[in-house]
Amino acid sequence: MSSISTKPYLIRAIHEWCSDHGFTPYLVVSVRDKMQVPMEYVKNNEIVLNISYNATRNLSLSNDFVSFSARFNGVSRDIVIPVGAVVSIFSRENGEGMGFEYEAPPEAALLDDAPAASDHSADKPDDDDDHTPPEPPRPAGRSHLRVVK
Predict the structure, then answer these.
(1) Which pLDDT does position 33 carry in this prediction?
(2) DSSP states of 10-55 as a string?
Protein backbone atom coordinates (compact mmCIF):
# COMPACT_ATOMS: atom_id res chain seq x y z
CA MET A 1 0.00 0.00 0.00
CA SER A 2 1.53 3.34 -1.02
CA SER A 3 1.24 6.21 1.38
CA ILE A 4 -0.45 9.44 0.39
CA SER A 5 1.71 12.55 0.57
CA THR A 6 1.00 15.05 3.32
CA LYS A 7 2.65 17.83 1.31
CA PRO A 8 -0.49 19.26 -0.38
CA TYR A 9 -2.33 19.27 2.95
CA LEU A 10 0.52 21.11 4.67
CA ILE A 11 0.71 23.64 1.82
CA ARG A 12 -3.02 24.34 2.17
CA ALA A 13 -2.74 24.59 5.96
CA ILE A 14 0.14 27.09 5.90
CA HIS A 15 -1.60 29.09 3.15
CA GLU A 16 -4.73 29.26 5.32
CA TRP A 17 -2.69 30.21 8.41
CA CYS A 18 -1.00 33.04 6.48
CA SER A 19 -4.32 34.28 5.09
CA ASP A 20 -6.06 34.12 8.48
CA HIS A 21 -3.35 36.20 10.15
CA GLY A 22 -2.93 38.81 7.41
CA PHE A 23 0.41 37.43 6.22
CA THR A 24 1.46 37.04 2.59
CA PRO A 25 2.07 33.39 1.62
CA TYR A 26 5.03 32.84 -0.71
CA LEU A 27 5.76 29.62 -2.53
CA VAL A 28 9.29 28.57 -3.54
CA VAL A 29 9.24 26.22 -6.53
CA SER A 30 12.10 24.19 -7.96
CA VAL A 31 11.81 24.67 -11.72
CA ARG A 32 12.78 21.54 -13.63
CA ASP A 33 11.68 20.00 -16.88
CA LYS A 34 8.63 21.60 -18.47
CA MET A 35 6.74 23.81 -16.08
CA GLN A 36 4.18 26.50 -16.71
CA VAL A 37 5.84 29.42 -14.92
CA PRO A 38 7.25 32.73 -16.20
CA MET A 39 10.82 31.61 -16.96
CA GLU A 40 12.14 35.20 -16.98
CA TYR A 41 11.70 35.24 -13.17
CA VAL A 42 13.47 31.92 -12.54
CA LYS A 43 16.81 32.27 -10.73
CA ASN A 44 19.04 29.33 -9.84
CA ASN A 45 16.29 26.96 -11.05
CA GLU A 46 13.84 28.38 -8.49
CA ILE A 47 10.99 30.84 -8.60
CA VAL A 48 9.36 32.56 -5.63
CA LEU A 49 5.67 33.34 -6.07
CA ASN A 50 3.21 35.38 -4.04
CA ILE A 51 0.15 33.11 -3.75
CA SER A 52 -2.03 35.41 -1.67
CA TYR A 53 -5.66 35.81 -2.72
CA ASN A 54 -4.93 39.46 -3.59
CA ALA A 55 -2.13 38.53 -6.02
CA THR A 56 -3.80 35.57 -7.72
CA ARG A 57 -6.98 34.71 -9.56
CA ASN A 58 -8.60 31.26 -9.49
CA LEU A 59 -6.07 29.86 -7.00
CA SER A 60 -6.33 26.08 -6.70
CA LEU A 61 -4.23 24.17 -4.17
CA SER A 62 -5.11 20.61 -5.20
CA ASN A 63 -3.38 17.39 -4.22
CA ASP A 64 -1.49 17.22 -7.53
CA PHE A 65 -1.05 20.81 -8.77
CA VAL A 66 -0.97 24.41 -7.60
CA SER A 67 -2.57 26.54 -10.29
CA PHE A 68 -3.63 30.16 -10.61
CA SER A 69 -3.32 33.17 -12.85
CA ALA A 70 -1.41 36.30 -11.90
CA ARG A 71 -0.09 39.43 -13.52
CA PHE A 72 3.60 39.78 -14.31
CA ASN A 73 4.50 43.26 -15.60
CA GLY A 74 0.84 43.84 -16.46
CA VAL A 75 0.41 40.61 -18.43
CA SER A 76 -1.87 37.89 -17.07
CA ARG A 77 -0.11 34.52 -16.95
CA ASP A 78 -1.46 31.09 -16.09
CA ILE A 79 0.75 29.22 -13.62
CA VAL A 80 0.66 25.44 -13.15
CA ILE A 81 3.04 23.83 -10.68
CA PRO A 82 3.23 20.14 -9.70
CA VAL A 83 2.99 19.87 -5.91
CA GLY A 84 6.18 17.80 -5.92
CA ALA A 85 8.12 20.82 -7.21
CA VAL A 86 7.15 22.99 -4.22
CA VAL A 87 10.17 23.24 -1.93
CA SER A 88 8.73 25.65 0.64
CA ILE A 89 5.84 27.87 1.64
CA PHE A 90 6.37 30.72 4.07
CA SER A 91 5.06 34.03 5.34
CA ARG A 92 6.78 37.05 3.78
CA GLU A 93 6.33 39.09 6.96
CA ASN A 94 7.99 36.76 9.46
CA GLY A 95 9.59 33.98 7.39
CA GLU A 96 7.67 31.25 9.22
CA GLY A 97 6.63 28.29 7.12
CA MET A 98 7.76 24.88 6.04
CA GLY A 99 10.32 23.41 3.65
CA PHE A 100 9.93 20.22 1.63
CA GLU A 101 12.04 17.86 -0.43
CA TYR A 102 11.73 18.08 -4.20
CA GLU A 103 9.68 15.13 -5.47
CA ALA A 104 10.29 14.24 -9.11
CA PRO A 105 7.01 13.46 -10.90
CA PRO A 106 6.58 10.15 -12.68
CA GLU A 107 7.92 10.51 -16.23
CA ALA A 108 4.53 10.10 -17.89
CA ALA A 109 2.81 12.58 -15.60
CA LEU A 110 4.99 15.67 -16.08
CA LEU A 111 2.30 17.99 -17.40
CA ASP A 112 0.02 15.48 -19.10
CA ASP A 113 -2.34 15.50 -16.11
CA ALA A 114 -1.97 19.22 -15.39
CA PRO A 115 -5.11 21.31 -15.27
CA ALA A 116 -5.84 22.92 -18.61
CA ALA A 117 -4.57 26.47 -18.72
CA SER A 118 -7.15 29.02 -19.72
CA ASP A 119 -6.93 32.69 -20.52
CA HIS A 120 -7.96 34.64 -17.44
CA SER A 121 -6.79 38.00 -18.77
CA ALA A 122 -10.37 39.27 -18.78
CA ASP A 123 -10.85 38.26 -15.14
CA LYS A 124 -8.70 41.07 -13.77
CA PRO A 125 -8.83 44.68 -14.89
CA ASP A 126 -5.63 46.19 -16.30
CA ASP A 127 -5.33 48.70 -13.46
CA ASP A 128 -4.79 46.01 -10.78
CA ASP A 129 -1.39 45.83 -9.12
CA ASP A 130 1.12 43.76 -11.02
CA HIS A 131 2.37 40.54 -9.51
CA THR A 132 6.00 41.39 -9.02
CA PRO A 133 8.57 38.81 -8.03
CA PRO A 134 9.02 38.89 -4.27
CA GLU A 135 12.22 39.61 -2.44
CA PRO A 136 13.61 36.70 -0.45
CA PRO A 137 12.92 36.98 3.27
CA ARG A 138 15.53 38.81 5.31
CA PRO A 139 17.23 36.76 7.96
CA ALA A 140 16.19 37.55 11.50
CA GLY A 141 18.69 38.72 14.05
CA ARG A 142 21.57 41.16 14.02
CA SER A 143 23.19 42.42 10.87
CA HIS A 144 26.59 41.02 9.96
CA LEU A 145 27.83 44.26 8.44
CA ARG A 146 30.48 46.37 10.12
CA VAL A 147 31.19 50.07 9.70
CA VAL A 148 34.70 50.55 8.37
CA LYS A 149 36.34 53.93 8.88
Answers:
(1) 75
(2) HHHHHHHHHHHTT--EEEEEE--SS-BS-GGG-BTTEEEEE--TTT
